TrEMBL record:
Keywords carried by this UniProt record: NAD, Oxidoreductase
InterPro entries documented for this protein: 6-PGluconate_DH-like_C_sf, 6PGD_dom2, 6PGDH_NADP-bd, HIBADH-like_NADP-bd, HIBADH-related, NAD(P)-bd_dom_sf, Tartro_sem_red
Full protein name: 2-hydroxy-3-oxopropionate reductase
Domain 6-phosphogluconate dehydrogenase NADP-binding per the UniProt entry, residue ranges: 7-166
ATP-binding among keywords: no
Pfam families: NAD_binding_11, NAD_binding_2
Start and end residues of each 3-hydroxyisobutyrate dehydrogenase-like NAD-binding domain: 169-288
Keyword Metal-binding set for record: no
Family: Belongs to the HIBADH-related family.
Highest taxon, organism lineage: Bacteria
Length: 297
């Protein structure tokens, strides 16, 4: 393994973080990881990475620190305080936060890190678990061009569509828009599925032909089998999409953008959670439409 590659600390080894960190190991990077679950640390070690007992230990010698945690509170918890990244990473390190959080949290983090001599990029991703495993994620980045250029080889090992969207927080703003489009798209697909089934049409045939025309989408390609098989094993949980819809509706209110359809879908996502479906894949929006259409699910 070449020692010229930057040393990477990876914080957060969940559904997305584990396969992403493993893709960096495959690309020849030395990865030291920390996460709360021991089995995830064991998985990283088995893949050729090193498990650290704490955030401080993980980031101490790292040139690049990458974080992938659920939401703004977790980003703040791992970044700030005596045991956090900013107090323990070396000056000159690059912190890449790949979590999906509020744009303001990213702006605040970049400001706080600058005082410590640490550079920051917000780099949320789209593509779900499959995209993480296959290293074909879309990565939307906010921050300085020079830092983006330095991080580009790392992003290339994780994704396929990698774009600098503007200053700090811009990546998160684009991610929020992404989650708006995805949720509305899943909702439209779910409504079509219920309509087709109640009409007695062969669902497999119908979805195949729809996906070949203007109604086709990455959402339909990725989620078609979930709809057909009612398989809602989480690739991206309703709980997380609920969080993201809160981010986009709040951010849109702040800038004066109306989201009439998005707000309705946000409420449908919220209702799924209250019905106990928060741990299911976001394609489970189908269950909400089925309930509204009289089915017992």
């Amino acid at each position: 393994m070449s020692n010229t590659l930057p040393k990477i600390a990876w914080i957060g080894l969940g559904i997305m973080g584990s396969p992403m960190s493993e893709n960096l190991i495959k690309a020849g990077y030395q990865v030291t990881g920390f996460t709360l679950e021991q089995d995830k640390l064991d998985r990283l070690a088995a893949a050729g990475g090193s498990a650290a007992p704490s955030i401080a230990e993980a980031v101490r010698d790292a040139d690049v620190v990458i974080t992938m945690v659920p939401a703004s509170p977790q980003v703040e918890a791992i970044s700030y305080g005596p045991d956090g990244i900013l107090e323990n990473a070396k000056s000159g390190a690059l912190l890449i936060d790949m979590s999906s959080i509020t744009p303001q949290t990213s702006v605040d983090l970049a400001k706080a890190a600058k005082d410590k001599g640490i550079r920051v990029l917000d780099a949320p991703v789209s593509g779900g678990e499959a995209g993480a495993i296959e290293a074909v994620l879309s990565i939307m980045v906010g921050g300085e061009r020079a830092d983006f250029d330095q991080a580009k080889p790392i992003f290339d090992a994780l994704g396929k569509t990698i774009v600098l969207c503007g200053p700090h927080g811009s990546g998160q703003t684009v991610k929020a828009a992404n989650q708006l489009i995805v949720a509305v798209n899943i909702q439209a697909c779910a409504e079509a599925v219920v309509f087709l089934e109640k009409s007695g049409v062969d669902l497999q045939a119908a979805l195949d032909v729809l996906n070949g025309g203007l109604a086709g989408s990455t959402v339909l390609t990725r989620k078609k089998d979930n709809f057909l098989n009612r398989d809602f094993k989480p690739g991206f949980r309703i709980d997380l999409h609920h969080k993201d819809m809160g981010i986009v509706t709040d951010a849109a209110r702040n800038v004066g953008a109306a989201l009439p359809v998005g707000v309705v879908v946000a409420q449908l996502v919220a209702s799924l959670r209250t019905q106990g479906d928060g741990g299911l894949d976001h394609s489970a929006l189908l269950r909400a439409v089925e309930r509204l259409s009289g089915a017992q699910v």
